[in-house]
Amino acid sequence: MNAEGLVEVVLPGKVEPEGLEIRHGAVPAPGPGQVLIRMEATGVSFAEQQMRRGRYYDQPAFPFVPGYDLVGTVLATGAGVEPGLAGTRVAALVKVGGWASHVLVDAADVVEVPHGIGPAEAETMVLNGITAWQMLHRKARVRAGQTILVHGANGGVGSVLVQLAQAAGVQVIGTASARHHDALRERGVIPVDYRTEDIPARVRELAPGGVAAVFDHVGGRSVVDSWRLLAPGGTLVSYGSASTRDDEGSKQWPVLKLLGRVWLWNALPNRRRAYFFNIWAGRSLAKNRFRARLRADLTQVFTALQRGDVTAQIAAQLPLTRVSDAVRLAESGTVAGKIVLTP
């Protein structure tokens, strides 16, 4: 069964994409409660771009195998796991470890991929889909007829957010560079050019009373503008600090500064709410509740994909051994959609 051997990508330290290492080894056997997944698709997400710079706020010590999420087929099950899981296509959110031909995951953490959804398609929806769904429906709780602002509307999370919002009957204003505007207009989004336009002024023109929600992955100065654009009762969901990706110094500081602002804003009596979204929140305290929510939300996203409410945007598919090219491409900012790695 395991004649093929293990291939994995190792991040040895703070390196350029060319410094990623390919390592070969024996395929591991699943322990109690685990499944062995043969990876069919994994992705390059923003987290790995931060990790290779040592900038992701809770990354493990170097060296480690990156890979935030994956889709694959269960090859073997460990003791105490339903043996019928073998042969099933599943998705898993792992934070690290996904960039490998074979991955061990707790059986309780895998979510079945419905028939008819291919591995690369499913992969584009795991991290990005859960993030978008939870921010939209669990944090902002958007309702039909509202108007929202999505920063980076053509990005991995942004493009899914836009489509899920529209499926819920919400009007979207989206920031993106000019070359993405036609594609956004075709989707029914009102585009704003973050490079040349004064975003707050333009959004006020479009939504004089403010917007019901802002989704901001930029961090820094942008978050303050985002907060000011909210209508009474509105929600700001901040989910990253892309603007500090290449900064030196403390990797915790941008996040702590954001959390401080969020805390302060929420203490003000102005009926608006701010959240710093972390997909792992609540996992250490209530593992079963966390898993149930993740399964429910990812299932909703897969259903939306099957219905055609969202489309999987695959920018490129590259084999694991070409991971350096994949990371370069993901960081170039020239592609729309997800860079998917395959075995």
Short description:
The chain is an alpha/beta fold and 343 residues long. It contains 10 helices and 15 strands. The chain is globular, with a radius of gyration of 20 Å.
SSE succession: EEEHEEEEHHEHEHEHEHEHEHEHE
General shape: globular
What count of helical segments does DSSP give? 10
Largest sheet: 7 strands, mixed
Task: Provide the helix percentage.
Answer: 25-40%
As residue ranges, the low-confidence spans are none
Kindly report the average pLDDT value: 94
Number of strands: 15
Strand-residue fraction? 25-35%
Question: Which structural class matches the secondary elements?
Answer: alpha/beta
Please render the helix and strand layout as text:
Layout: E1 6-10, E2 21-25, E3 34-44, H1 46-51, E4 69-77, E5 89-93, E6 102-106, E7 110-112, H2 119-125, H3 127-139, E8 147-150, H4 156-167, E9 171-176, H5 181-186, E10 190-193, H6 199-206, E11 211-216, H7 221-228, E12 230-238, H8 253-267, E13 273-276, H9 287-307, E14 314-319, H10 323-332, E15 338-342
Parallel strand pairs: 8-9, 8-11, 9-10, 11-12, 12-13, 14-15
Antiparallel strand pairs: 1-2, 3-4, 3-6, 3-15, 4-5, 5-7
Helix pairs in contact: 3-4, 3-9
List keywords for this structure.
alpha/beta, six-stranded parallel β-sheet, seven-stranded mixed β-sheet, 343 residues, 10 helices, 15 strands, globular, 31% helix
Would you mind describing this structure in some detail?
With 343 residues, this protein is an alpha/beta fold. It has 10 helices and 15 strands. Strands 3, 4, 5, 6, 7, 14 and 15 form a 7-stranded mixed β-sheet that branches. α3 (127-139) packs across α4 and α3 (127-139) packs across α9 (287-307). The longest helix has 21 residues, at 287-307. 43% of the residues are buried. The model has no long low-confidence stretch (mean pLDDT 94).
